[in-house]
Design brief:
This protein has about 300 residues and is an all-alpha fold. It has one domain: A middle domain of Talin 1, CATH 1.20.1420. The protein contains twelve helices and two strands; from the N terminus they run H-H-H-H-E-H-H-H-H-H-H-H-E-H. The chain has a two-stranded antiparallel ribbon. The longest helix has about 35 residues. The chain is globular and about 55 Å long.
Length: about 300
């Protein structure tokens, strides 16, 4: 009965987390448009980073609750899920993802760079203060180049906004942090009672749950014919996860880096990142390539099940 209660708490708190993130993104997007920021930059930064708020919130809550091993599992699991599941689904259901811009100019090199840097930062199973500052510098450089690289012709006229946008931004932010605490509490109790390592739950349930905003935003964008926004959302979210979600929680306490994650799941994340770049080099991702991505996600889930059973 107690396990069922914590499962219910996990589902409810995660649902609130996702809805609150949606409010936060809506508010931030409206405020961004009121400042005359172009839709592409909003998608790459505000929307992408907003949909990654659940990862950041749950990671900070995990460190504060003494379950810091969840952080690296959350980051790596979410990055794999974004590429393999989100892009795979968009490509399969939309038949093809067409890119109107060359993401190899700035965005893809930054994504590859963030993945490679994460590998070298974590190889000694310790995240130092210097490494944390390097990651934060990386996100600052990415944002600077993203805004400078914006095409002036793509800018939109400033659109008026109301107090509702600011209210959504504030309320969404508060609910994100509150629901994240209960999500981590439920995970901690479930892992203890079921005898499953917290990082395994982070790689599976948490990674999938916190990636739901990316899934919903990307599929909705693809349904409206804006598949490029879906790619930008995934790319920006992964950069944010690596640079910010990996570093900010380290401010609140030292991080535990599980051996299993570095032995298998981090290399898999790097392979998925490289594969993403290769597939996007011709400015399109076909349905068949989407099927390959989904096969990799099935491989990822299979390894998690093996780790859990073992």
């Amino acid at each position: 009965m107690e396990i069922l209660l914590y499962i219910g708490l996990f589902i409810i708190s995660l649902g609130v987390l996702l809805k609150a993130s949606d409010w936060f993104v809506d508010g931030a997007e409206a405020i961004g448009l009121s400042l005359g920021i172009s839709p592409f930059i909003i998608g790459l930064t505000i929307v992408a980073f907003g949909t990654s708020l659940p990862e950041l919130a749950t990671s900070i809550a995990a460190v504060l609750s003494g379950n810091s091993e969840i952080v690296v599992g959350n980051v790596i699991g979410s990055n794999i899920t974004n590429i393999a599941l989100v892009l795979g689904l968009v490509a399969v259901f939309n038949k093809q993802i067409d890119l109107e811009y060359n993401i190899w100019h700035i965005d893809m090199p930054f994504l590859w760079g963030s993945a490679f840097m994460l590998w070298f930062v974590l190889k000694d199973f310790y995240l130092s203060l210097f490494e944390m500052l390097l990651l934060l510098t990386g996100i600052c450089v990415f944002l600077t180049y993203s805004f400078k690289g914006d095409d002036p012709g793509s800018k939109v006229e400033k659109q008026p906004t109301t107090w509702r946008s600011y209210f959504k931004l504030l309320l969404g932010g508060v609910l994100v942090w509150m629901s994240a605490d209960y999500t981590i509490l439920a995970i901690s109790e479930l892992s203890a009672q079921a005898g499953i390592d917290p990082e395994i739950i982070a790689l599976s349930a948490v990674a999938l749950g916190t990636s739901l905003p990316e899934v919903i935003v990307s599929l909705n964008a693809a349904r409206k014919g804006n598949t490029a926004l879906a790619v930008g959302n995934v790319l920006g979210s992964n950069v944010f996860n690596t640079y910010v979600v990996m570093s900010i929680p380290a401010i609140f306490g030292s991080l535990t880096i599980p051996v299993t994650i570095l032995d298998y799941f981090l290399p898999l994340m790097i392979v998925m990142t490289i594969l993403f770049g290769i597939m996007a080099s011709n400015k399109k991702i076909t349905r068949w390539e989407g099927c390959v991505l989904l096969l990799f996600y099935a491989l990822y889930l299979g390894e998690i099940i093996t780790e859990t059973v073992g």
